[in-house]
Amino acid sequence: MYKLAGELSQKNAREVAAAGNDAIAQGQSDFDFSNLVQIDSSAVATMIEWQRQAAQYKKILQFHAVPASLISLIQLYGLSDQFHITPAERH
């Protein structure tokens, strides 16, 4: 499982996308968002990029522990059906 940590925002989205693409190329298909503390709409674009990369390898990505704020953005953009998402647990 590929674990993201810290931030996924406009200021680092390209680097995070590239690292995720590398992980997909190495066989990863599960992405864990549980250690992300900051996101913005760039996270949605990054996830779309990963989906494109995964399609080249005929893989289906699973996104785990996705923060509610990111799920809200995905719904706002009408992309809910594009991703396999497990929401973050609520405490």
From TrEMBL:
Quote the Pfam families the UniProt record gives: STAS_2
Q: What InterPro entries does the record tag this protein with? A: MlaB-like_STAS (IPR058548), STAS_dom (IPR002645), STAS_dom_sf (IPR036513)
The cross-references to SUPFAM superfamilies, in alphabetical order and at most eight, read: SpoIIaa-like
The STAS domain, residue ranges: 1-91
Protein name per its UniProtKB record: STAS domain-containing protein
Organism annotation: Undibacterium jejuense
